[in-house]
Amino acid sequence: MNRILAIGAPAVLFLIASSSPAQSLGELAKKEKERRQQVQSEVKVITNKEAAKFNSGPVTTVSLPSSQAPEKEMPDKAGSPAVKPISDEPVDFQGRPESWWRQTLADARKNLKDLGNEGNVLTLKLADLQNQFYRESSGFKQQDIQREIQKTLYEQDRNKENFEKAKKELEDLEKEARKSGALPGWLNPKTP
């Protein structure tokens, strides 16, 4: 007889397999104690100091019992395995699951946002350099500042091109998702 019990955190599920239909409460307590000791040894604590390195993007976590293995891996655009679909996860016409679409679109949106932020930084840097240029009375220092202004203008032009490319890629990705039968809710970012 197999029973699924939820103990502890809401997302923690485990399977208790018993050979006899009736187990004593002592046996169950012993198994639960062993399970908790095993879980405690696998726990990784993240401190505030370490949390900064995890702020770079969305986090997706999935816990599967050892008896359930993912069916197959879905390749991303580069051809490397990216997302492992869960067996009951809905897929589009080409076999890509919802999680693949959500992750791919989230990455594209993050890239677009990062390029927008980089463009804002370059604009502020350019304004600062122009202010420095007009405050400086030495012609030699003005030449150095003028070179920095030219570099910043070049970086700003490259950023604008990259931003437009990323925007086009996001639009193309959304069109591809619609054509391949991805449900409309998959295209929207998840709200916490």
Topology (elements, then pairings):
Layout: E1 2-6, E2 13-17, H1 25-42, H2 48-51, E3 74-75, E4 81-83, H3 98-135, H4 139-179, H5 184-187
Antiparallel strand pairs: 1-2, 3-4
The spatial strand order of the largest sheet comes to: 1-2
Radius of gyration: 26 Å
Query: Helical stretch count?
Result: 5
Q: Bin the helical content.
A: 40-55%
Could you report the average pLDDT, rounded to the nearest whole number?
77
> How many β-strands, per DSSP?
4
Beta fraction: 5-15%
The assigned structural class equals mainly alpha
- pLDDT < 50 stretches: 5-19, 66-74
What's the oligomerization state? single chain
Largest sheet: 2 strands, antiparallel
- Approximate shape: elongated
Element string (H = helix, E = strand): EEHHEEHHH
- The first-to-last residue Cα distance is 38 Å
Textual characterization of the structure:
The chain has 192 residues and is mostly helical. Among the domains are: 2-43; 98-187. It is 55% helix and 8% strand. It contains 5 helices and 4 strands, in the order ββααββααα. The protein has helices at 25-42, 48-51, 98-135, 139-179, 184-187; strands spanning 2-6, 13-17, 74-75, 81-83. The strands form 2 sheets. It has a two-stranded antiparallel sheet with strand order 1-2. Helix 3 (98-135) packs antiparallel against helix 4 (139-179). The longest helix is centred in the C-terminal third of the chain and has 41 residues, at 139-179. It is elongated and about 90 Å long.
Which features does this protein show?
mainly alpha; two-stranded antiparallel ribbon; two-stranded antiparallel sheet; 4 strands; 8% strand; elongated
